[in-house]
Protein 1
Amino acid sequence: MIRFSNVDVVYPGGFQGLKGVDLTIDKGEFVVIVGLSGAGKSTLIRTINGLVPYTSGELTVGDEVVDPTSKGKIRRLRSSVGMIFQSFNLVTRISVLNNVLVGRCSSTPAWRSLLGWYRAEDKELAFQSLERVGIVDKAYNRASALSGGQQQRVAIARVLAQDPEVILADEPVASLDPPTAHRVLQDLRRINRELGITTIVNLHHLEMARKYADRVIGMRGGEVVFDGPVEEATDAAIEEVYQRSLTAGDAAPESAAH
Amino acid sequence: MSTPAIEAPARPQKPRPAASAYAGLLAAAVGLILFFLWSSTSTLQLDIGVARLPLYPILGALGVFAVLALCWRARTGPLTALGALAVIGVTWWGGSGIGFTLAPLWEDFDRGWPIIQEFLDPSWGFIWRVWDQWVVTLAMAVVATGIGCSVGLLLAMLASPVSSPSKPVSQAVKAINSVIRSIPDIGYGLLFVAMLGGTAAGAGEMAGILALIMFNIGIIAKLTGETIDSVDKGPLEAADATGSTLLQRDRIAVLPQILPGYSSYSLYVFELNIRASVVLGIVGAGGIGSTISVQLSHFNYSNISAIMIALVIVVLIVDYVSLTIRRRIT
């Protein structure tokens, strides 16, 4: 369970990323966050694993309070919270398998990492993760030799290798074509169902959000302005989140679009 | 058939710089030429038939006016033109200050001719007679490259804010790297020869290797450090998000990205070491340079010529091999 109570994020430059966010996300939920660019979706997701430290309020993941000041605690938290990025963030010059093994870092001693000499059980876990996303045949290919969709699935396998309780996905399909995007979201959805991993996804595409989400959260200007089951996320409700028509190309935004 | 004209406002012309600004520049140019005339201590004269003019001030004046005319023609902004004038002025000032001239090249040609003749008649047999020194040179280069590049990589990792444990560490190591780099290879050579005793005391090779190591650390730490600064930060963020430690992140996300660049710099440093060991040998560190030093003191130019030719060939081979390897890895 993830609980935000009155969480604020103020960036060093003074920009307020989150304003008084109150939110509870239950175990096993598949939550999609929508909102315009700059609405605070990324900030919300990155607060959960401490990539962005929150400045006031309280955030708990599982039973532990997230403490951005303690490196050790944050590392322990991150070992059970996996993250997927828009640009995949694979090390392109090493093999797919070695990329997936990055997910085992937190439980691998430093000397093993330095020598690149991983335990057999870690490799086994990495192979299982690759099998789950269906690209185990590419295990010894260089990551750079894979297509975008395949690379994103390697990134999902990297997360699975962590054996996480939560998966955070920051715009996971924004740089993929629509069929590939659906394939990746189906993978995430299936993993969420099969393993019961809480999954929080940022999405730009409303139709995709409606197709895969259990619950939709709308953000504007760093605040949560909509929160409800997917059936309630009607066009009217989302237009309210965006503060503009869903179809108008040139409508001048009143606020929130920075 | 004619395409319909596009309705558009007239295209802008490149703006002409203000004439007043150029008048100011002209005044500055005249001032510069007066300064040339006043400060020139050279007695060299240029004979143009009707009169003899002081050579350096005339050259300076011609340069200044040519640059000004070019800038005006190209509609260069006054600030750029001022910069060009400054470059001419400083170059002239430096050149005349040391009395720069190419005249001795042909005026003293007769004195140099015997030396050139000896150079043109290299004693080929000498190359083989000093083969052991070549082996020493190569061995020095290999050892120094290995140690220097390893230490250099470590310092580069500590120096770059991307891979360093903290900002103070990064800045401190950067400062150390700058100091190491500021001393040239021959400076280290003189230092270690003085400390260890050089070729005469049988420690020439050791002094040479140490000098090369310091020289290599400076170069590798600088180049690799800049490569680390510019790696793709995405994989680093991903490694952070899995809960890896700094050491693991550097090994898994940084090292694979810099490896091609780093290997290429290491090979380049190896090439440099072959060349640098010649100069180091002359100040008393071992290797082929010490042979050159001995032959030079005997005025044995045909032997030196042979070594030079062999050196060019060795360097070309090393260049070629390392270029081939570098192409493969990048």
Protein 2
Amino acid sequence: MGTNKEMVEIWGDIVEIRHLLISMAISNISTIGGLLLAPSNNEGKQLFFGLMGSLIGFVISALFIKPKRIVISKEG
Amino acid sequence: MNIILFIQMVLAAIGAVFIYTLIGFIPGTDETSVLMPITLSVVLAGIPPIIVLTFFIAAIVTLNLTNAIPTALVGLPGGVMSSPMMEFSLFLKDKGLSPLVIKKMAAGSLIGVLVSLPTSLLLANFLSSYSERISTYAPLLFLIGSIFLALMGRNKILSLLSILPLSLLFMGLRYLYWGIGIVPEGTNVTVSFFLGITIGPLVLSLLSLLNKTKGQSMIRNEIKKIIIPKYIMVDTLNPFKIMTREEIKRACMAALIVNFLFVLSPVGLTILFGELAANRVQDPIDRANTAIATMASLTQSTYLSGIIIPLIAIGIPLSPIAIGPGAALFNAPPVFTINNNLHHILDKKELIIGIITGAVLAIGTTYFVASKFATNISTFVLKRIPHEAVLSLFISFILLLAYLDAGLINIFGVLLIGITSGTLNKMGVSYGVQFMTLYAAPWILEKFPY
């Protein structure tokens, strides 16, 4: 395992630092994107667009980043 | 109340069940940090109050059950409230009894909801005759609350000591924002400060990565191997067949008692009464089963009484649940404020309808879904939802709310609060003390003899 793929335990589960940084970048960019699309004089809409942005970021991250867990299904 | 509003309430409840079933299966997610921000956005989005209430009640009932299941299925706690069950769940999992354990959790939860709904509604009704007198003392009560929670906590002296410095931090930032004119004078920035406290521990562990020695200790070389047993879960769904008579009796008793102790910590109560109920059972398997069933019932009743009683009787958040996960129902400016929130906007009948609709729909659906599909949902969540995306979602969310509350500078204000709160939290100052202090801060500094 190379050093740039270092994994750490945060908040009860394991993440790869590189992936965490990528995912944070995606989420923040999509949230800011949502915010910029919203009319600047309406705080309710800003919140809504921002939230949608962060949700989209979440979905994108979830699609491209593999969870750091080995899941094995076993006959019980 | 018309039919369209009721349909919307049903939809809100189903939405909450769906969202929190998935979240519940994510290991380690803290209840306050998953309940409060989402409820807050529902409130701020301008959704009608009764629908907000239905959503929140359905959310807590669902989350309490689905958080417990991963302990039995994959050996990870779904949240804080399920950590007391870990020991018993793991023991029964090793004996190959997980399918039965999951059903006992579901049945115990059902009992908890059925017992605590009427009890806490009655208790709230009784207490509400004192509400006017109680709410005039609100600021003082928050101070007493924070002192009380400090004395109940892990680190009593530090908790007491931190009340004043934390008040200075909150009020210091508020005065600064007024001074530079980013927030109109007199408007108390609350929501994002609250979230800052909530994510404190997360912020702190992220920042620890930047410290060489601290970061080293968090490095893991192996990823977790999680074995999900393939169980066939088809047989009975009748709770009276799933639980023994003795288990039902103890789960009911425990659920009943904690309603009267709604101002105490829900985790503490669950550990105390869960172990009390199980202690006298001789056979280790029976003991573990009794503990699980009772604790499942307790998580529901501590949460329900902790939100229902302050909401109906008083209108100010005077319990760990109301001031933590449920804070957005009491104070989410500009929609709700301490003097004008769900308690004031909805009449008693509406409050009761909202609560019952949310609780009944959530426990009905989750009971069925948990008993039948626990394995499938768990597999989906563990295989498809990366922890990185969950953490990033939280962070972008906090940044967004911090920005909307008081502009760019508040992102750093919230970071400051996160670092402070996270550090205090690590040293044993509970969320409850910090939340109560946030509410008490204006009054404390007004009365402080400079």
